[in-house]
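Look over this today:
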Amino acid sequence: MTENIQQRQEQQADIQASLSAASSSTNAATQMAAQEEEKVYKNHKFLAQLRDSGLDEEFRADLGPLLAGAHVTASRRDDYERYIKWINENEAERELIRNTPGRHLRQRPTMQMIAQETHRRDDRQWTPPMTQDERGDHRNAMEAVTNFQSLAVEGRGIETVGTVQTSTEVTRQTDEEKSLKERVEGVYR
């Protein structure tokens, strides 16, 4: 009989240990989730960061409305992504062609000024041909524009902002519940 009691006590101790381990792992998971929510909560400038293309000022000035923040919060059909891809690639190639003079103009900067219609104008400066690095940078910038504008496809950008807003509200509510719980516990201690 004492053996049965000892076995039961051992079983209860094993059950208690497994419950304790499960409880500690649940607490750890809860703490990790709370930390993740806290990171989201602290990022109150998320929409502004999402609307920022991340390109240098030089490219922002040249690309202007292509980098408007409205592209992030717009909602377009799913074929818009393909459409802007081809439009932006075409625009990139056009800009490269405009800034790549032919063989005869490359050797004669004065003729290039005439071709650019800057020879009699004080308000416009002659632009030299693009270097190979500048050409690559321009192509990459237009690819970034395409990626930026693709946030409008099926409302991806606005959906992301909504998800972050929801997470922020849930976190605030949880924080308020915690502070209320702490106040109640303080009264009853």
